[in-house]
Fold this protein.
Amino acid sequence: MRKISVGILAAVGIALLLLSFVSMGQAYFNNYTIGGSEGPGVKQIGGGDPQVEKALRGIRGTSAAYAGAFAVLFLAIVFGPYKRGEIWAWWALMVASLLHAAIVLPRLVFVDTTLGVGPAVAQAVVVIVALLLDTSRLRAPRA
């Protein structure tokens, strides 16, 4: 089950890394929409004010950078200590996934939107399922 778990987690990490580059491209090169696919583009929101457009592009670019950095660290843990069976790596991936979901879910209440909740919850569910496939390491005696 460990190999399946590692494979699923690797797929999640690679997808996150690739999507961070897609998001970077949107931030720096496209008139990406705000508030969903039917929302106004970043140029329309800026209303001709280049500072507003720069700020929105910067926010998206920073988010893409953090997503990419998270993906690299995620993959480093998956292909290193997690694959070797180290218990702390299982817990690090679990806590990171739960924290990500915990930070995104309050937008349902405080921002009154579901925008972005689906992908975050889907990611958390896939990671948690992959980790649950390898809970035997948590019962193993320590070396």
About this structure: DSSP finds seven helices and no strands in the chain.
